[in-house]
Amino acid sequence: MVFILNPKVSKEKIDKFILGWEQKGFSTILSVGTEHTAVCLIGNTAEVDLDHVVQTTDIVSYGKRITEQYKAVNRTVHEDNTIINVGDISIGEGFFTVISGPCSVESEEQITEIARSVKESGAKILRGGAFKPRTSPYAFQGKQAQGLQMLRIAKKETGLPIVSEIMNQTQIDLFEDVDIVQIGARNMQNFDLLKEVGKLKKPVLLKRGLANTIEELLMSAEYIVAEGNSQVILCERGIRTFETMTRNTLDLSAVVLLKQKSHLPVITDPSHASGIRSLVPPLAKAAMAVGADGIMVETHNNPAKALCDGAQSLDLEQFHALMEDLKKRAVLEEKEM
To answer: Picking from 73-82, 146-155, 160-169, which range would have the lowest pLDDT averaged per residue?
Structure first.
């Protein structure tokens, strides 16, 4: 249940209104937007007389019930689009932010060369896997803590913020200098991990699971926001279907629905979605066309010798060509790159 407050209500009256509900056992979310201020009640609201509250509370303009289980990430509660800032970089509506880098950090020389190149091409954030969740226990598992150190060196060399995937709660301290913490597809419903990153004061990039619904993705985001961290970036990275010609199936309709249902930024990962290098550029352009706020693209200085996912990685020249194309399209879409 959400109450939309009248304009120019004092902070004291809002605090008193919220306290009254919390004393009755409800949790509350206060959302301050450019158009209005809203107070959302979380709990068993079935017995709350909505009309009575509106009629007897002078600071309430109107109220409505929210049927969805996700509240804090719901656009009904928070109408304004959330813009997430990483340094001087903005992620959200009106921007098309490109994150690029190798699937896995392999060496200091490799990650630094890639970082310099993708920055020159226009990428705003550097990605690189240090801890790698692999289907096979015998596959390359990443450089781990050493890989994070290599990412930090590349960040120092180029100034690019960095994003890398965390595997479990025990690694939280290792990610202190990582600008954006990534929750991978396999961990999307690792609820204990979601709660822990919800306590961080830094952005979290949350990937949709291989076989998860849009609502389940939003509920996972709710876990993070409910802990106090509203800096969540949703990522559509393809879901598993009956199709075998691609690694996964990129659900572009999810981008549109997520933007309608939630105020959080939405990006796509065309690399993991397709698993095929030649499909990455057209899928990246399609993501921009349907309103995505950015993409995450795997780029490698020598894909043929990559230790992880070389077949879906663009080389540095291919990434540069994609960026030149996207910059032209961004003008038409009124997106800032």
So the answer is: 73-82
